[in-house]
Structure formats: C-alpha cells, structure tokens
Amino acid sequence: MELFSEFIKNTGYYLVAADLRYLIMITVGILFCYLSIAKRYEPLLLLPIGFGVIIGNIPFFKGFGLGIYEDNSVLHYLYFGVTTGLYPSIVFLGLGAMTDFTSMLSRPKLMLLGAAAQMGIYFTLLSALALGFTPREAGSIAIIGGADGPTSIFLTAKLAPHLIGSVAIAAYSYMALIPIIQPPIMRLLTTEKERCIHMPEDDRVVSRKELLFFPIVGTLLCCFLAPASIPLLGPFFFGNLMKVSGVVDRLAKTASSSIIDTATIFLGFTVGASTQADYFLKPESLKIFFLGAVAFSIATASGVTFAKIMNLFLEKKINPLLGAAGVSAVPGSAREVHLVGQKADPSNYLLMHAMACNASGVIGSAICAGILWSFMM
Amino acid sequence: MELFSEFIKNTGYYLVAADLRYLIMITVGILFCYLSIAKRYEPLLLLPIGFGVIIGNIPFFKGFGLGIYEDNSVLHYLYFGVTTGLYPSIVFLGLGAMTDFTSMLSRPKLMLLGAAAQMGIYFTLLSALALGFTPREAGSIAIIGGADGPTSIFLTAKLAPHLIGSVAIAAYSYMALIPIIQPPIMRLLTTEKERCIHMPEDDRVVSRKELLFFPIVGTLLCCFLAPASIPLLGPFFFGNLMKVSGVVDRLAKTASSSIIDTATIFLGFTVGASTQADYFLKPESLKIFFLGAVAFSIATASGVTFAKIMNLFLEKKINPLLGAAGVSAVPGSAREVHLVGQKADPSNYLLMHAMACNASGVIGSAICAGILWSFMM
Amino acid sequence: MELFSEFIKNTGYYLVAADLRYLIMITVGILFCYLSIAKRYEPLLLLPIGFGVIIGNIPFFKGFGLGIYEDNSVLHYLYFGVTTGLYPSIVFLGLGAMTDFTSMLSRPKLMLLGAAAQMGIYFTLLSALALGFTPREAGSIAIIGGADGPTSIFLTAKLAPHLIGSVAIAAYSYMALIPIIQPPIMRLLTTEKERCIHMPEDDRVVSRKELLFFPIVGTLLCCFLAPASIPLLGPFFFGNLMKVSGVVDRLAKTASSSIIDTATIFLGFTVGASTQADYFLKPESLKIFFLGAVAFSIATASGVTFAKIMNLFLEKKINPLLGAAGVSAVPGSAREVHLVGQKADPSNYLLMHAMACNASGVIGSAICAGILWSFMM
Amino acid sequence: MPEMETIKGIEAITMHNGWAMAVTGAMIVITGLSVLSFIISKLHKVIAFLENKQKKTTEEPATKNSQPTLAEIFSDDPGETARNCQILTTELGNSFELCSLFSIFHRHNLPHPHITIRNLRSAGFLVPQKDGKFHWKSL
Amino acid sequence: MPEMETIKGIEAITMHNGWAMAVTGAMIVITGLSVLSFIISKLHKVIAFLENKQKKTTEEPATKNSQPTLAEIFSDDPGETARNCQILTTELGNSFELCSLFSIFHRHNLPHPHITIRNLRSAGFLVPQKDGKFHWKSL
Amino acid sequence: MPEMETIKGIEAITMHNGWAMAVTGAMIVITGLSVLSFIISKLHKVIAFLENKQKKTTEEPATKNSQPTLAEIFSDDPGETARNCQILTTELGNSFELCSLFSIFHRHNLPHPHITIRNLRSAGFLVPQKDGKFHWKSL
Ligand code: NA
Ligand code: NA
Ligand code: NA
C-alpha cells in the first residue's frame, strides 16, 4: 500500500497538481502541433518542437535520469547534439546540399539585401542590453533577428546555453508567423508604385564552373572574415560543393535526405523538450519573445529600407519588397514577398529574386553569428 | 622468434584452447545466424545478434582496447547506445513511424488484452526474486515477459546493466520461438468452440482526426501515469504523430527507414557482442533463460485467460486466442493467433484483431518498464 | 574602434599573414577538389578530404573552441569518429554490404596475390624505422602500403594519432594516383608475353551456400589469427553476411547507402580538416609522403613478383599483372591491371580476376593492420 | 549478482516487497490501459463535438485566410506557373511523384490540378526521371 | 615524433626488432590467406557433404514444419488473401516491388503466385505507386 | 540570467560596449557580403579568363591522358562490353537508372552510347528492375 501511494506521488498527475506551469507548456506544445498540422506553418520545424515541448513537460520525479537536464537520461544524450552545436552544423551540411545558388549568382546585387536585413540583429543586441541582459545573452537573443533556426541555436549553445529553449522557440515561432509579421511592414514602408516594380527576368546564364567556384570562394571569403562562422558555413558550402560537383551524387543525396532529416528530427525534438517549465517559464522568456518580435520586424524593415536607399543610386530600380526576403526564413519570406508583390501587380513575378535574397540572408546571418561569437570572447 | 611465439600466444587459436567457453558461444552465434537465414525466424533481430555473438566471442588479449567491455574499443563506443538506452529509444521512434493504430482504434476493447498479457511480467518478477535475484535484477528479468526486445534492453540497461546480454538473448530467442511456445498454450486453455468464435469485421471507420489525436492523448495518459516510460513511449508516439500528420513525410520516412535500420543494426550487433563468454556463461544466464520461458508462457496464458474472463461479462464474445497476441512480439504472436484460429475454423479471420492486441501490448510493456523502473528507485 | 581592430586581428586575413603555411595547405585542398571534380580521381574520398583541408586551414584564434584540435569544437566532436576508429569500422560495415565475393570464391588461388601485395607494408615498416620513426609511427606509415584508406586511418588512430592527417593524405593521394604509379611498375616487371596470358573465364559457379558460409568462415579464420583486426573485419564480414543472406535486405541496403555515405562524408571531411598547417606541415609529413610512394611501389612490385614465382610451380600460368591488383585500392588497381592487360592483348579480359585479388587485398591489409597493432602492444 | 548466502523463495519475495510490487504493477498497467481504451472509444465523439463547435466559430476565416492567395499566383504563362508550383512544392525535395504534386495542388484548392500538371509536363517544366519520379526543370 | 638524436638506419631497425616484425608479419598474413584460400577451395565440397547429410535427417520435418500452414491461409476471398499476404510481407516495409512479393510467395511455396498477385492487383488490394512499386490498400 | 540590480537602458549598452559592437558588426557583415557580391559578379569573367589560359596549355594532354583508354576496352562481344561497363560504373552502386549509365558513357567519350546500352539490354546484361532502375546481370 505504501508502494502504491509512493507510486501515485510519482505520477505526472500528482506532480502536475503541485506545479501547473507544466500544463501551460503542454498546451503550448499541443498548439504548436496543431499549427504545424492544421495550418501547415513550417511543419518540419514546428511539429518536432511541438511534440518535444509536450514530452519535455511531462512532470517526473527528479534525480532519476529522466529529464533532459539530468545526466544520463536519453533526452540528455540526444540534447548533446544541440549543446555542442553538432545538429546545427549537420543541418547546414544538408541545407548546403539542397540550396541552389543559381538564382543568387545571376543577380549578385541582391546579396546586399541579405546583408541589410541583418541590421535587425544589431538593433536587437542593443535592445537586449538595454533590457538588462548580459552581453552573451544579448548576443544570443539578437541572433533571432537572423531568422535562421539552426544559426540561432548554434550561437545560443555557444554563448548562453541556458537560453537555448527560449531563443529557439522564439525564432521558430516567428518564422512560422512570417505571413503575419512581414506583409504589414512591407506595405507600410513601400508605395504602391514601388511594389509594382518589375525585375528583369533572365539576368545571365550561370555556368557550371561558377557554381563550382562559388562554394570555395564563399568559404574563403566568409570564413576568413569571421572564422567563428566556420562551424556553420564550412559544412554549408561543403554540402553545396558536393551537390554541384556532380561527382559524389550519392553523398550529396544522403546529406540532403537521411542526414539532414535525422538532425532535424532530433534537433527539433530536443529543443522542444528543453523547454521544461521550471527552466523555461521565467520573465526572461517573455522578454526574449518580445525582443524576437522586434528583431523580426526591424530586420524586415531594414531590408526594405536598404533597398530603397540602393534605389537612390541605381539606374535600374530594385523592387524594395525584396529587402524583406533578406531575413532568410527560407522559403517563407520569399513567398511573402512574392505574394505581396503580386497583390500590387498580378503580373509581377518576384519569387526567383526573393530566393536569391533568401540564400544571401542565410550566409549573412551565419556571418553575424560568427561576428557576435567573436565579440563575446 | 620470441615475437612470433608471442604473437601465437595472442591468437584466438591459442587463447581458445585455454577457455573453451568461447567456442560454445560461437556455436550459439552460428546457430542464431542459421535460424535467421534458413528458418527466417525474426531475421532482422537474430542475424545481427547472431553475428554479434560470434564477433564478441573471438578470444583476444585483454587490456588492449578490443573487447566490448574495454574502454576505448570500437565495440565499446557502439555499445554506448545500448547502455544509455539510446538505441531502444531510437528504435521506438522508428516503430512509431511504422505502426498503424487504425485497427486498435476501431476496437478499443481489445486494448485490455494487451494489458492482461503483461501479467507474465509480474509473475516472473516474483519468480526471479524467489530464485535469489536482487530486486533490480528481478525487474530486468521480469520484463522479458513483455516480449519486446528494445523495451527489455532499455530497462535492463537502467536497472542491471550486467545482465543486458542474457536478458536480450533470452527475449529475442523466445520471440523467435513464438511459433513453438504459444500454440500449445493457446490450445490448452481454449476449447475448440472458443477458438472458432468469429470477430466482427468492420467495427468502425477510424477518422484521420482520431489517428492524429491518439498519439497525443496516448502520450499524456501513459507518460503521466508512468513518467519512467517517457524514453520509450515519447519517441514512439512522436514517430507515430509524424507518420499520421502527413505534413512531415520526409521525416517520417527517414525515421522508419534509415534511422531505425541503423539503430537495429548496431543494437543487435553490440547486444550480441556483449555475450562475451567470460561475462555471459554463468549459472545466472541459465536461470534467466529458464525464467524467460516461464515469462512468455505465463504472459500468453494470462492474456488468453483474461479474454475468457471478459467473455463472462460481454454479450458479444471475444475469441480468447486474441489474448495471446497481447504479449506483443510484433508481428509473430499475431500471426500465431491467426493460424491457430484458422486451424479451428478456416473461415475465421483474426489477423487484424490480433494486430490491435499487438499494438496495445507494445504500449503495455513499455508502461510496465516504466513502472518497474520507478519501483526500483 | 578598439573592438574593430581587435576583430580585424582575429580575421583569417590578419592571421594568415603571420603564418603563410595555411595558404599552402589551402592550395593543396583546392588542388584535391580540382582533381576529384575535373579529373574524377576517387571523388568519394578526395572531395571531402579536399574541402576538409580548406576548412581545417582557415586561420582562427586559438583557445576559442573552433579548431579540430580544440576540445568542444564541432570539428573535434566529428573527429571523434576518426580518433576512436568508429568511422573506419562503419565504412567497413558498408563495404562488406557492397562487396561481391563471387569472383574471389570461384578463384581461391588468386587470394594469395592479395597476401603477397602486403609485402609493401613490411618493407615500408623497415624503411620507416631506418628513417628514425618510432615503431608505432613506423607501423602507421607502413600500413599505407595496404592501399586501403579506412584501414590506414584506423591503425594510425590506434598507434600514432598525431600522424592521422599525414598518413591519410598520403594513402588517399596515392590511391588517386594509382593510374600513374602502377602501370610503369607492372610493365617493368613483366614481359609482353606474360601480360598476354589469358585467364580461364568461368572457373566454377559459386552457390548461395558458399556465399553464406564465407563471411562466417572468413571471420573465424582471420579474426582468430589476428584478433586485433576484429574492428575492421568484424563489421566487414557482418555487412557481407547481411547482404548475401537475403533476409535482412532493408538493413543491408541502409548499411550500403545511408550508413556508409554518412561515415564517408564525416571521415573525409574531418581527416582533411585534421591537416591544420601548424600540426601538419613538418618534415615528418614529407618523409611520410616519400615512404608512402615507396610503399605503393613495393606493394605493386611484390604482388607481380609473387605471381611470377607462383607461375614457376603452376601448370596453368597466372597473368602476373594480377599481382598488382592485390594492393586493393578498390577498384582503381583492378582497372589498371585490366587496362595494361588489354594494351598487351586487346582480347585479354582480366577485370573479374583482378577484382578477386582486390577483395583479397582488402582482407589482407586488414589482417596486417591487426598484426602490426598487436606487435606494438 | 546474488551471493551464495542469498535469501531465496517466498522469504525473498516478502523481504524485497515483491508481492506489493507485483500487485501494484499489475493494477496500474491494467488501470492505465483501461482508461486509455475508454478514452479511445469516446474519442470520435469528442472530435465530432469539437468539429461542430469549431465549424461555427472558424469556418469563414479558415477559407478566407491562407490558401486562396496561392491559387491566385497561377497565371496563364506555364513558365510562371511552373515557378510558382516549384515554390509551393519545396517540401517534396528534388524529385517527387506526380501524385504528391497532385495532392499538394489539391490541398491548396487549385483549380484543375490535372490539367495544370499535364500542361507543365507538355511544356517541359516537369522533367520525368527514369524511376517514374519527376523533377523541376532548372529555371 | 623522432627526436634529434634518434638512432637511424639499420641500427634503428635492429634495435626496434624490425627484422623480426617484418618477417613474422609477412609470414602470418601469407599463411592466413593461404589457409583461407585452401578452405574456400574446399568449401563447396564441405557444403555438398553437409547438404547430403542434412537431407537425410531433416528433409521431412522441414517440409512439414513451417511454411505449408501459411499456404493454408489463402482463401478464395481476395480480401482475406490480401490481408494474409500483408502479414506475410511485413518484412518488405510500406512499399515494395512486385518481384519481392513474388519471391516471398515463392519462398512460402504458395500455389500460383503469379495468379494470386494478378488477382490482388485487379481487385485493387495492391495499389501501384508512381515509382513502379506497390503498397497495400489500407484494410 | 540578469540579477535584480542589473544596470539597464542606455547605460547598460554603453557599459557593455554595445554601440561599438552593433556598429562594427553591421559594418563587417555589409562589407563582407558586398565584397562577395562583387567577386561573384566578376566570377564568370575570371573563369572565362582561366579557361582560355588553360585551353592553351592543357588541351592536348587532357584528351590524350585518361578516358580514351577506357573507350578502347569496348569490344564486339557484348559479354565483355558488359563487364567493362560494370567496372566503369561501380560508382553507381547496385542499381541505377539508364540515364546515369548514359551520362557515364558520354563522359568517357564512348562511341554510340545509346546503341551500346540497347545492345546490353537486348543481350540481357542489363536487367530491368520493377522500379524502372537496372542492375547488372551477375557475371
Ligand atoms: Na538570415
Ligand atoms: Na508487450
Ligand atoms: Na590492401
């Protein structure tokens, strides 16, 4: 009988009564699952995270090797790939093997928009410092403005591991909410006439040699500039070289299927599980969420504004909506840019150009991660 | 010349002469390979284990970093996934992504049989204690009655790691021997008339929403009840949600192919290799084998008996053979139930119902693992 | 401003100016990429290594967790599979699942050539000792003569981890250069008449049972003889048994695709990255490169010579070119043998026989790795 | 491992609290699965109830909200349509089966998915592979 | 790494027992592969011998034992046959090629595998996929 | 985590050197991507230049060096051709699509790849699989 009552005291039902925060988090997890399945908001990210949130918030008796923050638990071992930065690096390997740089290589000017959209990062850095976060925490929060999940997780794992959950949840939430966040900002900052600017369609045929040179040139340039971005950009350009080389197709295929899928599953699941209520539900998390929204908005705004500034100097005007695609959030932001453009002028086709900005935004935020990391030495 | 004689003394030939137990184990390994290839008894499990047994019992010079129980050996690193419980968790992820709960959801009553068949576990627990095993060892041995390989390995890794080899070999051996163990017990406990009971074919169409709700409801219910089953049931229901959601097909496909295959290969191979004769060939192993046979038999018997008890209260009688499928051992026991049923009445079709019991048996034994683990805190 | 100059001092541009050796290595990396893509020299190996060399030689600020030799860096964790020998073992698992021993089983005599070609290993052992290397270093360098990348990396990881980069680069470079190294030696040591010897085409039909017995017999024989070769030959024969058994096709398929591809990518990439200039560019590396060339040449020569000696005793002469295929270097050396044979007599068809020697050469060099390792205890 | 002087038999069971463990354990698993079984048997009713409720509150916004915009981007020019489709189908990876494509179009409520696909094929934007799958022509 | 004052040349070889290592190593690998080569060359004879012996002792139980029962489960109703086949073929995974199915039927000594498969297809239980593989209709 | 008495606002930014970090960081990323953008825009010219230069120095050895020897190994006997092709195509793995085979033949400058493949098929050396891929007949 004693054993029975002991057991009852260790069930989740008993434990949750003592700490209702778990229920809040489980509701959040279910909401994420719902959004990913019913609304199809970035399901590859939201579903694993959502279910991870549920699993991570089932109350359990501590000190027993079950929780993600306890040594020797299965979740802890799987989480190792997050805290060391392994999963983000591996995801970037697969992303590289999936990314087609043709569009970007034929429109190099658009790369600048991918740089401009990173301003959200630095603005958020200042805001986070002003809100009282330490510099290392502020750097982790700022990177949410890069709108790139693995990059955010990687930098946070290096700078402020205790914030991984909050930063990841914020980053992925806002990436899923791109269709809600970006369009009003885009419309606010552009005139109807600007939104109607057509982009020239076929700038130039990109040769196979260019595609081959790019990952090597890109590695040398970006990684020399910010060596701390090696763990992200190294695998990224490696994956891309495997893809475009055409001589190691089986490796490229595995990298862009089994390898990235495996890393995605465990990354999402454990990041979700790391939101254990007693670690996660703190005022800081709310602040981070607030800052994340600021970061995304500023990033969008600065991309658009920069495009408008460029237009002052360019003869052939750029559609300033494209600036919003520089925040990466592949391919969500590209799609939004395209849709807003089409609303203004149904014959306007911005998708390929937006993808070019997207690709450059990924590189841009990885560089920023390297820069921020090296600042916090 | 000295070097040569030194080398000879370190060959397996020389070493095996000093300890013939290795030869016994190698014979067992070859037998497992034979059964899996020639008789096709659960080849996905028996072949890796069988070859692992061979590899693990090639005599070698100790203290050199070769054996599975020596730090720094390749086998030791691969075995890490067993001792930490990682492989079983990952296998459950894949199993979830492969399991179709439609059959079970349309016949909820049959779930009880999956619970009843777990009685073998508790009976074996008592027997193992009576034979002088410590409670933690007894718990590990008892779980063999769950007839679920990964579950057994997981619990043993947590409770009594020194028994992993014996428990795993016993569990998998008896799972392969299901066609020999179960039918006599089924026939002994049922009348010809009972075996002829037909089951209604189409109970109800299961909607997609039910399939979507089930993994979440199941997680909340089972994991709240026995939080220690999270490492098994968490990934299991996660895999299932990925499958039924239909929005992350590429992840579900990778989970149910590359990921589970990889875990299966290394799980089987290293569990086999962990049967190194000097660790394995002990009186305890024989006792464990004996208890394993008892566990399987009692599990089968209690499933069948419970079905007969249910029939006392039900208007629409259940075919009691289905109780035997509650031991899980997917899909072996379902097949046996079906075949015994068909022998009694060739027009009797029990397969889908037996699969429902199977699925519930998997959940049942994972819950039992959680219960036993939490008892041994 | 201070921050800016601090940042500049930490860029690769600034650091490389202080140590131009990085530029040398990056050039080597680019050369490897070029050879693999443009010349298609063993791209599955050279491309990952080449890009790894580039990544590993981007100068960075030490003590920050970026370099492969720094704890806690992503590269360091990925490199773990090299230093422990895990990647080579896993590659051998996949190789086994891809290797078809039919050709070798129907021509057992040719196995001897696979043994003879290992003489290059022992000759190099003596040379390396004479050049002042320690016995453990000499053993690692000698294994280059086995012409088998994973085997070389495995043994070096066990005996002299500080040489992994040099040994691996040497082994893979010469494997890529097989078409340049082997033909002159073959021609030098054989007469036109010998090169024209035809080999009987269909020696014997190999039954499925033979294919099934072989991996088990091979394991018992080779691993008993040299237990230290278990980590290579164990997975190798395991993979092969999975393949030929036909009962675990899904496992065999995963082993020969996702699993080996993943190990190949990370093995190549991290081995390449381990050539960090300040660790790699030393006089020893040059000596190792020199000894590697010697090893390959002697291995080729001894294979050919041994075949000629066998011919003294055989009634049905063997084409001595086949000896050169005993160095393994699958399938490059088999192709060279075939091409040189065809040059002498366009109707001569040596490919299948050369493949038999190849397969035996792989086993031979794994045994030699075991022997050398056990000598250095 | 049990030592020589281990207590055995009934005594051992009692000492280690075996009876309580067995009874409690058995009770818990049966209770657990019974409750799950009960909930499952009611699940479709709960879902039906939720659906009715939801239908009333969200039916209209749901149709207004997300997908139609995507249908709009389909133009008469097959080239543009192809590019639009390509972005809709990034989730499919590099190569895919026509039926997956069809189901995506269907999900997005695009008009005449069959005709669209046929047009894309005949215009060469959907390139058949030898294994029966298709990939997009590089644009 | 060798130090400056390292002994080199023949002396180094002798000191480190190099000659013995090289000779012994070479001998062992040649002996090993020779024995393996010899065994391989006799393997088919050993197998033939074992097969003959086994045939005498196990031929009858083998045919009695496992597979025929599976043949029995094939009924006239294609629906039932389909479900039976499905359980036989769990090893194939979700999608498979007809030839794998055929070889499983063949292995189980089922009568007329070709006809069975054709019936299953025409009855819609075997659903063709675009990639030439098939999956079972959900039952 | 920030303590209670944490400095906040502008003061905190200044104290932690925030302004410098933000300005420097922004400058670096914009400079970096601008340079990359510039290099990319010139890349095709660099490549064209390299190609011209390379053409002059390596055109002849390139054709002499590696592939033609492989073309030589194609004989009239389809059996031998099959085996030759098989070794050329180890990179394809066990099963492959005809188009991959074709591209390898093409890459090796073999004469009439289409005819060769057709001959190999009709002679049964290339065995079609159900999924549209092919494998080599075991030789
Ligand atoms: Na970005
Ligand atoms: Na069970
Ligand atoms: Na070799």
Describe the structure.
The complex is a heterohexamer, with 3 copies of chain A (377 residues) and 3 copies of chain D (139 residues). Chain A is mainly alpha-helical and 377 residues long. Chain A has 2 domains: 1-60, no CATH class; 81-376, no CATH class. Chain A has helices spanning 2-10, 12-18, 21-38, 43-56, 74-83, 86-98, 102-105, 111-116, 119-130, 135-142, 149-159, 164-176, 178-189, 192-195, 208-225, 230-245, 249-273, 277-280, 283-313, 332-344, 351-375. The longest helix of chain A has 31 residues, at 283-313. The mean pLDDT of chain A is 90. Chain D folds into 2 domains: 9-63; 70-136. Chain D is built from 6 helices and 2 strands. Chain D has a two-stranded antiparallel sheet with strand order 1-2. The longest helix of chain D is centred in the first third of the chain and has 48 residues, at 18-65. Chain D is elongated, with a radius of gyration of 30 Å. At the C-E interface, helix 8, helix 9, helix 10, helix 15 and helix 21 of C face helix 1 and helix 2 of E. The structure holds sodium ion (NA) (3 copies).
